[in-house]
């Protein structure tokens, strides 16, 4: 911070900050991400999980509620608006195909970074589905050891 500038809420937070999208609050209390300062979004309709919410708050997490759609997915625009209100302007989304597809189909992705490793986990490859016709303009590709990195913008 420059001398004379007042620190913003975002500049005072530990970076990077963990944000978890967990509509049903099913995250284990023993997870490494359950720690002071982590923001966890849950669905408003899961009020029966009040005890889990209280346990997460006791561990220092910030538990916030958002609306969900018919499939039980959190309203991402509402989540992003709440993060913006807290001074968070940039988000690195890490997750599986459901979360990627949700952000892509909602048109909430500016940049795409893909890391491919020469090994697969689980029972096969699941594709990322998107309802948009947006195209990615790949700008960079690197080989990192045995992995491949692609970076592109929408």
Structure commentary:
The structure is a single chain. With 154 residues, this protein is α/β, with parallel strands linked by helices. The protein is 21% helix and 22% strand. The protein contains four helices and six strands. It has helices at residues 9-12, 50-58, 76-85, 97-105; strands spanning 19-21, 39-43, 62-66, 111-116, 137-144, 147-153. The strands form two sheets. Strands 1-2-3 form a three-stranded parallel sheet. A three-stranded antiparallel sheet has the order 4-6-5, with no helix packed on it. It is globular. The two termini are 31 Å apart. Residues 1-8 have low confidence and may be disordered.
Query: Any idea what the radius of gyration is?
Result: 18 Å
Strand fraction equals 15-25%
What overall geometry do the principal axes of the alpha carbons give? globular
Biggest pleated sheet: 3 strands, parallel
**Average pLDDT taken over every residue:** 80
Ends: how far apart?
31 Å
Brief overview:
The protein has 154 residues and is α/β, with parallel strands linked by helices. Helices cover 21% and strands 22% of the residues.
List keywords for this structure.
single chain, 154 residues, alpha/beta, three-stranded parallel β-sheet, three-stranded antiparallel β-sheet, 4 helices, 21% helix, disordered N terminus
Secondary-structure map with pairings?
Elements: H1 9-12, E1 19-21, E2 39-43, H2 50-58, E3 62-66, H3 76-85, H4 97-105, E4 111-116, E5 137-144, E6 147-153
Parallel strand pairs: 1-2, 2-3
Antiparallel strand pairs: 4-6, 5-6
């Amino acid at each position: 911070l420059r001398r004379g500038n007042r620190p913003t809420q975002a500049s005072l937070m530990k970076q990077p900050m963990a944000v978890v999208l967990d509509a049903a609050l099913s995250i284990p209390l023993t997870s490494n991400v359950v720690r002071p300062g982590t923001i966890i979004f849950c669905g408003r309709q899961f009020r029966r999980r009040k005890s889990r919410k209280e346990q997460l708050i006791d561990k220092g997490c910030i538990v916030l509620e958002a609306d969900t759609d018919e499939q039980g997915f959190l309203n991402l625009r509402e989540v992003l608006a709440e993060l913006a209100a807290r001074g968070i302007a940039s988000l690195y989304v890490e997750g599986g195909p459901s979360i990627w597809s949700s952000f892509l189909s909602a048109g909430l992705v500016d940049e795409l970074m893909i890391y491919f490793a020469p090994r697969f986990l689980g029972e096969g490859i699941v594709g990322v589905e998107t309802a948009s016709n947006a195209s990615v303009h790949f700008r960079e590709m690197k080989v990192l050891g045995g992995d491949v990195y692609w970076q592109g913008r929408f």
